[in-house]
Fold this sequence. Notes:
Layout: E1 3-8, H1 17-28, E2 32-37, H2 43-53, E3 58-63, H3 65-75, E4 81-86, H4 92-96, H5 103-116, E5 119-127, E6 130-132, E7 135-139, H6 140-150, H7 152-158, H8 160-174, E8 182-188, E9 191-198, E10 200-204, E11 211-212, E12 215-216, E13 229-234, H9 239-250, E14 262-268, E15 270-283, E16 286-306
Parallel strand pairs: 1-2, 1-3, 3-4
Antiparallel strand pairs: 5-6, 5-16, 7-10, 7-15, 8-9, 8-15, 10-13, 11-12, 13-14, 15-16
Helix pairs in contact: 1-5, 2-3, 6-8
Amino acid sequence: MAKILMIVNEAASSVTARGRVVIQKALGADHEVTAAETARRGHATRLAQGAAADGIDVVVVLGGDGTLNEAANGLAGSRTALAPLPGGSTNVFARSIGLPDDPMEATASTLESLARNDIVPIGLGLVNGRYFLFHVGMGFDAAVVEQVERRGDLKRYLGHPLFVYSAFTTWMRHYDRSRPRLTVRYRGAKGETVVDDGYFALCVNKNPYTYLGARPLDIAPEATFDRGLVAITMRTLSFAGLTGVASKALRANTSVAKARKADYATDLDSLVVEGHGPFPYQMDGDHLGDTERLEFTHEPEALRLVMP
């Protein structure tokens, strides 16, 4: 029997009161379960830190990717494992490790994993002192997420169409496409590389980047928990360039690495992104504002994860 803290974000897109009760009862059949609700941004981090300090075996998170990110930051470096349950609109991380997108089915899978003790250490990305599970977007990508969050009341109902709409309106009206915004520096297989004409960039710890419905956007197949980071820098914001990358990400047996006007680097231990002035950034789907410099490192075996 494991000691479990179940962290619930009641505001997440697909979390319901009935679903929470059913999931808590299912977990409590064979384990000692305590539940806690998040009340504000950053609360899940403090709840997870407290669980680790109290010797809790597993923190189960019912919420979206942002809540998962917060919990992971509270658990990194501890013996307490993280178990995600999909409660958001897209649930990128939970789906990327093979969990069903239905919370009840995912709970059944998690219980099976706990019975088998399928808990593994995974690598995380670290940027300016904060961990991320699957990616950080800088520039245009983050501006799209900001527009989605401004329509947060619609996110629960529109989901993926809202992201597509926001990407189009951001490209048309809400992002300066007249000049490069970023410089990306890293040391890879070919030595030191400096890309000083980036319009936007992604740092990926776990593929896929996101999902459109049931289809993953596979922009970085090399991004796995046991390898270094993948950096993708787009050197254009032309409509043809963006749609070309998106089509490659949606098709099997193609690679964004071969896209025109894209710099693609794998297995990175570290990289630095500097802005030509402030630029927006987002982490695991949460817009975090503007910055002028981000320093990334890959942290192997930073988190214990309940793996389906």
